[in-house]
Design goal:
Layout: E1 2-6, H1 11-22, E2 26-31, E3 46-49, E4 66-69, H2 79-93, E5 96-100, H3 112-126, E6 130-132
Parallel strand pairs: 1-2, 1-4, 2-3, 4-5, 5-6
Helix pairs in contact: 2-3
Length: 138
């Protein structure tokens, strides 16, 4: 399978990529910084630059079988950027999609991170996609 992972060089994304590559899947992914394009891990077939608040080439998803959403912008005031950017990627992809969420996603969350994950879970559920809430990431 051809699998695209947003945030592929982050902690969760890179571990998913490593496993999927080991299982003989073709792994593609996005990074948010130009310099990361030159540091492609061996298990990733190709990297693409996608910033959550910028336009991107929607054709990169055309031949993908699955999109796994791991990207998250940790900078200050990034709530809208994370929500809008992730939804824009999801709408452009139109493939089977998996959203990696968090136990922070709930109606009584007190953090920006939890609010973003809660909002995006609602979107992905309404679109019929899969949500994974890892219990503990170490």
């Amino acid at each position: 399978m051809k699998i695209f992972i947003t945030g592929v060089t982050g902690f969760v994304g890179s571990n998913i990529a490593r496993y999927l590559s080991y299982e003989n899947h073709q792994v593609f992914g996005s990074v948010s910084k130009d310099w990361k394009l030159n540091n492609k891990p061996k298990e990733i077939n190709q990297l693409f630059l996608i910033k959550l608040d910028k336009s991107f080439d929607k054709n990169i998803f055309n031949n993908m079988d699955v999109i796994i959403h791991c990207a998250y912008d940790t900078s200050v005031n990034s709530i809208k950027r994370n929500i809008r950017g992730t939804i824009a990627i999801s709408k452009a992809a139109k493939n089977k999609q998996i959203f990696i969420s968090s136990f922070s996603a709930h109606n009584k969350n007190a953090t920006d991170y939890g609010m973003v994950k809660t909002t995006l879970e609602k979107y992905f559920l309404e679109e019929g996609h899969i949500i994974i809430r890892p219990g503990l990431v170490v």
